[in-house]
């Protein structure tokens, strides 16, 4: 559980982790913030312009503008109108600038964060995926990153503009108002800010729970959609609908808890805002009446306070978006911070020069939190030879394949290719040297030709067709509605099991690896399809190191050597005829499968 320990050790807040990740976006963040501040300053100019207009009407030749030598009221209003036009134009331009910058920033961050998270996910070892659900990972890569984008689109700008307005108002109030009026007007501010922080702290666990519940819900949906055929065949629709309803209900209740807290914020803040605004309205009005401040300044402050205090009412909504975004950010950053346990080696491997000599040297392996699967196993495979590994289910056969491909690393011992420890090899070079045809064939949603060329993306149409012919897939492909351009559907659901298997073999033929692994390649097909597949396998295994994992012993009886595994160890080895004479596990399996009572053919 190394990765989970490391994740717990990161004590930084989600915002700190996001800022650290977004270090390369600092110039764009600075530009967007600058335009947000400029727009806020310009947005606060109209109250000042209103105050100046009131000042002109009341003071006339003694007004603020008159001090600059413009005595005529008409020209004072003309100048004020010109200033208003300029302010409005630049306010509109700055709004366009900050809106465009923040939205583009949100798009850039969510795009790069999603790609970085996905690329990191691809590098993680197979054990990580065994402990994680597909729906949960999809939730992180989609919903959580979208939550962050939503906040950056508007929430960040709102916080900056409220903060800027707050600073301007405080500075203006202290310069214009008597101290006692300023204090009375500003009195609710500390309570509003304190209440907002408390509110934020209480919302944080609520939205963390919401994100967890939506992850469970997405997992259930993804699992059920993938298994829809099984659900239908077992008439389990009502059962699964009830289970989904349980997950959805838990998500709804989690959201309701957050909403209950969120909804209470605005009414409370509204009352605090009322105290500040009423204080300024009464005390400021009395100060203007007694001529301690001008009527124009009083008008300016009334509008400015209203412009600041009322946005604070909606600060709860901004904090709500912020907490949703931070809860999602934590999940994304936890994924990015998950350590990659299987790292690539620094030794390059030229695929064309690989001979294909494979050796397992005293290897031991256990899956995470599980018993030992393979114990001190040694196995030598000469270059260009075909060997087979057989044994009962759970004996460790397929685990050997996963270890050779470095989906997992051995606990002890080593695995070598051409005498080189595979942990020293570049991981991409290692896997390019190995072709895998497994029982569980995965085809991507796309054309037949694209699936054959998967991994060999530069292959020509001629090479694809040639590979299909060797795999005895060409005839059935040409009978499909659009031939090689036929869409196979998600996971290849439009094709039969045998057709998918032959496309997988054609994919391996096109890859032309020096080492070929056949993991139960014919176990799920009928006898006729098996015969066709076996003919194609006989062709492609020539002069190529081949490891065949099989239950059907008839498919591997002509191998150069057959290894029998039992409880993670090799207990028998030899050619088919020699193993029958041993009268051991292999002979018993052969009798069961062939129906023979004796040990000879």
UniProtKB/TrEMBL annotation:
Residues 36-324 form the ABC transmembrane type-1 domain. InterPro entries: AAA+_ATPase, ABC1_TM_dom, ABC1_TM_sf, ABC_transporter-like_ATP-bd, ABC_transporter-like_CS, P-loop_NTPase, Type_1_exporter. Residues 358-592 form the ABC transporter domain. One of its GO terms (molecular function) is ATP binding. It is found in: Cell membrane. PROSITE patterns: ABC_TM1F, ABC_TRANSPORTER_1, ABC_TRANSPORTER_2. CDD domains: ABC_6TM_exporter_like, ABCC_MsbA. Its main location: membrane. Pfam families: ABC_membrane, ABC_tran. The chain crosses the membrane at residues 73-90, 166-194, 261-289, 295-316. Keywords: ATP-binding, Membrane, Nucleotide-binding, Transmembrane, Transmembrane helix. It is a multi-pass membrane protein. PANTHER family: ATP-BINDING CASSETTE SUB-FAMILY B MEMBER 10, MITOCHONDRIAL (PTHR43394:SF1), ATP-DEPENDENT PERMEASE MDL1, MITOCHONDRIAL (PTHR43394). This is ABC transporter ATP-binding protein. It comes from Nostoc cf. commune SO-36.
């Amino acid at each position: 559980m190394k990765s989970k320990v490391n994740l717990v050790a990161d004590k930084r807040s989600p915002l700190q982790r996001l800022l650290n990740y977004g270090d390369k976006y600092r110039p764009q963040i600075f530009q967007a913030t600058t335009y947000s501040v400029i727009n806020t300053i310009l947005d606060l100019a109209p109250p000042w312009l209103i105050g100046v207009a009131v000042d002109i009407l009341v003071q006339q030749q003694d007004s603020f503008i008159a001090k600059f030598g413009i005595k005529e009221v008409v020209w004072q209003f003309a100048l004020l109108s010109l200033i208003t036009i300029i302010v409005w134009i630049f306010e509109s331009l700055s709004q366009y600038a900050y809106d465009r910058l923040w939205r583009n920033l949100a798009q850039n961050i969510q795009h790069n964060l999603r790609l970085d998270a996905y690329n990191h996910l691809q590098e993680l070892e197979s054990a990580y995926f065994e402990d994680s659900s597909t729906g949960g990972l999809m939730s992180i890569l989609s919903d959580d990153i979208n939550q962050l984008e939503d906040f950056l689109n508007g929430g960040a700008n709102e916080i900056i503009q409220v903060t800027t307005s707050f600073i301007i108002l405080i500075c203006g109030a202290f310069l214009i108002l008597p101290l006692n009026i300023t204090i009375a007007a500003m009195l609710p501010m500390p309570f509003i800010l304190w209440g907002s922080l408390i509110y934020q702290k209480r919302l944080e666990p609520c939205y963390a729970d919401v994100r967890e519940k939506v992850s469970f819900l997405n997992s259930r949906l993804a699992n059920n959609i993938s298994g829809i055929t099984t659900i239908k065949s077992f008439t389990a629709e009502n059962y699964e609908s009830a289970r989904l309803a349980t997950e959805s209900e838990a998500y709804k209740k989690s959201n309701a808890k957050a909403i209950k807290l969120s909804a209470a914020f605005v009414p409370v803040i509204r009352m605090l805002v009322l105290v500040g605004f009423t204080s300024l309205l009464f005390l400021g009005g009395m100060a203007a009446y007694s001529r301690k401040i001008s009527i124009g300044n009083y008008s300016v402050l009334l509008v400015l306070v209203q412009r600041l205090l009322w946005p604070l009412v909606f600060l709860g909504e901004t904090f709500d978006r912020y907490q949703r975004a931070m809860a999602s950010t934590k999940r994304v950053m936890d994924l990015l911070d998950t350590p990659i346990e299987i790292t690539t080696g620094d030794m390059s491997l030229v695929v064309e020069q690989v001979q294909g000599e494979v050796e397992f040297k005293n290897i031991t392996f256990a899956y995470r939190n599980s018993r030992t699967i393979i114990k001190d196993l040694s196995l030598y495979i000469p270059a260009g030879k075909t060997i087979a590994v057989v044994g009962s289910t759970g004996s460790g056969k397929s685990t050997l394949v996963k270890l050779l491909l470095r989906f997992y690393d051995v606990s002890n011992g080593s695995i070598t290719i051409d005498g080189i420890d595979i942990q020293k090899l570049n991981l991409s070079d290692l896997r390019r040297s190995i072709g895998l045809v497994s029982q569980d064939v995965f085809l991507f949603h796309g054309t037949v030709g694209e699936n054959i060329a998967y991994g060999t993306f530069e292959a020509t149409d001629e090479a694809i067709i040639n590979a299909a012919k060797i795999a005895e897939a060409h005839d059935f492909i040409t009978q499909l509605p659009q031939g090689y351009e036929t869409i196979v559907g998600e996971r290849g659901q439009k094709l039969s099991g045998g057709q998918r298997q032959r496309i997988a073999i054609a994919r391996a033929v096109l890859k032309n690896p020096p080492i070929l692994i056949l993991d139960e390649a014919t176990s799920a097909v009928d006898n006729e399809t098996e015969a066709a597949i076996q003919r194609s396998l006989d062709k492609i295994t020539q002069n190529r190191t081949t490891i065949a994992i099989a239950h059907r012993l008839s498919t591997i009886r002509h191998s150069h050597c057959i290894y029998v595994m039992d409880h993670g160890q090799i207990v028998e080895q030899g050619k088919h005829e020699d193993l029958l004479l041993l009268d051991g596990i292999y002979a018993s399996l052969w009798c069961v499968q062939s129906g023979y009572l004796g040990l000879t053919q």
